[in-house]
Amino acid sequence: MEYADRGDERLRNDLVEAHLGLAHQLARRFTNRGEPYDDLVQVASLALVKSVDRFEPDRGVEFSTFATRTIIGELKRHFRDKGWAIRAPRRIQELYLAVRPAVETLTQELGRPPTVVEIAASVGVSEESVLEALEAGQRYRTASIDAPDRQDGSIALRLGQVDGGFAGTDDRMLLAMSVADLPEREQAIIKLRFVEGLTQSEIAAQVGLSQMHVSRLLSASLAKLREAFNRES
Amino acid sequence: MSGTEQDGSELRTISEPVELSIPVQSDLILLARLTAATVASRAGFDVEEVDDLRLAVDELCVLVADGGSVGRLQLTFLATGNAVEVICTLDGAEVQDGQRPDEYGERELSIRILDALVDEHGEDFEGDQRRGWLRKRNVHPGPA
In terms of Cα–Cα distance, which of A134, A24, A33, A143 is closest to B59? Predict the structure, then answer.
């Protein structure tokens, strides 16, 4: 590979640019876990740069495969370090919070990642509990089966599903203008709910309000939007 | 490796194939991930490898479902030597003898992810049956 041989900065940038789409796609695979998409893209993009710098062509692995592996690894690590942002029973959350440091400690002690049996012995719980906690902590997105694509979902489309009335370009424009008239916090909540597809609880965790409060703000915002829409149309 | 002692806990390798049948529904893929994780864990995979296998099984199901929503995914999980194999089949695929156009590059991405996470994988289709498989080796096999 030319960049590895010559270390040319321009080639490095070209390589990063050529694979930015991959970073975006992989970030999207992790978007149902309460983290803003933009943050995930940033993590994935940094990982891409890292993979350009670390790639060794002599190992016989294609760059895109190496980059995919590096980006997925960094996204997984990001969630591990970031803590808890998804819906899970309190028992599982506590278990995960015990398992996570145990994985790190054991990795250092053993010089390799631990097995589930080793983690279970260290935390003092069953293998099944560790697997349950890890599953909850590593929840992943089966994007293609039946989940709607959050990044492609417009506010108008989603609100249209609720109200059954918003369709067509004019309506979308009217809706966008009405959303812009809402207070900043309500705009952010509408975006998190209908563009990023977060649940009310996930939004509550992000904006620092209770789920009930988020629910009330959403209802009030939707009522205002309906009112504005009916008035104008 | 059955009966291996490790930190006082017995590793109970699953030597028989484990079979699972689920509707094509994203929230039920969780069952496939958990089963794969259990089989891999019993085979002595470390936690990183278990995580990778979990993601790979997700992608395998996505590939085999091919954007459809009818039929059931039949999954077989098998620990063989130092590896875990997963076979996923779907009878009643909506597209006969082929695949839907990969309009958004989702299929290509799934293949790329599988390339990165497992040692071998493949897929084939015949009539309304679609089949995908993967094989992942344990990078840190314990004592035999």
Answer: A143
* Cross-chain Cβ contact B46/A115 below 8 Å: yes
Distance (Å, rounded) from C-alpha B102 to C-alpha A92?
A: 37
Question: Does the pLDDT at position A114 exceed 70?
Answer: yes
Contact with chain A for residue B141, Cβ under 8 A: no
Which of A26, A22, A147 lies closest to A76, judged by CA? A26
- pLDDT value of residue B11: 58
Instruction: Give CA–CA dist A137/B80, Å, rounded.
Output: 28
The 10 Å CB-count burial string (b at 16+, else e) for A41-58 is: bebbbebbbebbeebeee
CA distance A155 to chain B (A): 21
User: Is residue B86 predicted with pLDDT exceeding 60?
Assistant: yes
Greatest pairwise CA separation for chain A in angstroms: 67
Question: Could you tell me how far CA A51 lies from the centroid of its own chain?
Answer: 21
Helix (H, G, I), strand (E, B) or coil at A164: coil
Please indicate, yes or no, whether the overall pTM of this predicted structure exceeds 0.80: no
Instruction: Tell me if chain A has a CB within 8 Å of the CB of B70.
Output: no
